[in-house]
Write a structure and sequence with these properties.
The protein is built from 11 helices and 7 strands. It is of the alpha/beta class.
Length: 378
């Protein structure tokens, strides 16, 4: 397969966030997703109350929401249920009749929408049981396609949400040929590599905002959560260290003759982790949205480590943290790695990666950095 064809396949596969093999990997990534959704709950409450305060006609006939890159796991309908609960409470607070709901679930064409549809009978039955027969009704539909293209009619949406998706690029940046022995930006990457990633994210994010501005009603809202970084340095540990450890794992396999150097050199991750200032500037430059909320929060590499400030873990604790962090990351990255290197190396690769992560966490409890933004369509 030609290198450019491989790159395109990588970008397409990585957006299927919950397709990694292994029950443990899936369960931990699902747990991490749920934690993030719970973390954003106050923002959703503030956002929907703000829409009610502005007296936007969104609680009339039908409240239409879209979840972009929804995947097909157990958390797929969690966002929809969260919004319905908040709208219900706000309507009661404002003494308004509750609206009908239209929930549009977006993913790429290859997503397992049948799995989502199989969840709907229980989802609807539970809503009726808890809310009563007069609640809603609620309508759920699938909208396949990339969010880097138009998905909905003009001014048809009241609320758009996307979690852990917007940092994925539409394609790999140009000029990564000299990013040898790296799989993402790192402290050893040439300046043109970092500039290429920045340029591609700016183009994609600006396009994403422009497309959604055509689909969201005036005064409608959009809430996005995605990976970022805490400081201006694009090679900071919170956005790059994990991928440097994965690159080291591949280099270990190269020494053992298990992978080819050319395959490592052609492999680069198709995403970008911006800092808050970059995001703020990009939104203001595009001009279609006003920023209501923009802040960062941290997430543990090991989502089950409840004592993340403890830097004196026992050896067995560090091994467990490395295993959990590796499994959570594997659920996201495995499809991309498999499409480039093949399936035969995956178990060995993640065994090595697990050890590198454990060694790192034994010395430094590095965290992910997440960016959460709430935007109002002008």
């Amino acid at each position: 397969m030609k290198s450019k064809e491989k790159m395109g396949l990588q970008v397409e596969n990585i957006l299927h966030m919950n397709t990694g093999n292994g029950e443990s990997s899936y369960a931990q990534n699902s747990f991490l997703q749920e934690m993030v959704i719970r973390k954003t709950l106050p923002v959703f409450e503030h956002t929907i109350k703000g829409m009610a305060d502005l007296d936007i006609d969104v609680f009339g006939q039908c409240f239409k929401i879209a979840d972009l890159a929804c995947s097909s796991g157990r958390n797929t309908l969690l966002f929809a249920r969260t919004i319905m609960d908040i709208v219900d409470e706000v309507c009661k607070e404002y003494d308004r009749k509750g609206p009908q709901f239209e929930v549009c679930l977006n993913e790429l064409y290859g997503n397992d929408f049948n799995t989502i549809f199989g969840m709907l009978p229980n989802f609807i039955a539970k809503l009726k049981k808890e809310k009563g027969e007069n609640f809603g009704p609620s309508f759920v539909s699938a909208v396949p396609g990339s969010f880097y293209g138009r998905l909905f009619p003009d001014q048809s949406l009241h609320l758009v949400h996307s979690s852990y998706s917007v940092h994925w690029l539409s394609q790999l940046p140009e000029g990564l040929e000299n990013n040898k022995a790296n799989i993402y930006m790192s402290k050893t990457s040439p300046p043109n590599v970092i500039q290429g990633y920045q340029k591609q994210f700016y183009s994609d994010f600006t396009n994403f905002l422009n497309l959604r501005s055509e689909e969201i009603v005036c005064g409608g809202r959009m809430v996005l959560t995605f990976l970022g970084r805490s400081i201006a340095d694009p090679t900071s540990d919170d956005c790059c260290r994990l991928y440097e450890l994965l690159a080291q794992s591949l280099l270990d396999m190269l020494e053992e003759g298990l992978v080819q150097e050319s395959d490592i050199n052609l492999f680069n991750l198709p995403f970008y982790t911006p800092c808050e200032d970059e995001v703020r500037n990009f939104i203001q430059n595009e001009g279609s949205f006003a920023i209501e909320t923009l802040y960062g929060f941290q997430g543990n590499w090991d989502p089950y480590d409840t004592d993340y400030t403890n830097k004196n873990d026992l050896k067995e604790d560090s091994r467990e943290h490395g295993k959990n962090a590796s499994n959570a990351f594997r659920a996201v990255a495995e499809p991309l790695l498999t499409s480039h290197f093949g399936n035969s190396i995956i178990d060995v690769l993640f065994n090595k990666f697990e050890r590198h992560v454990a060694e790192h966490l034994a010395n430094k409890k590095t965290r992910y950095f997440n960016i959460l933004i709430s935007l109002t369509r002008k």
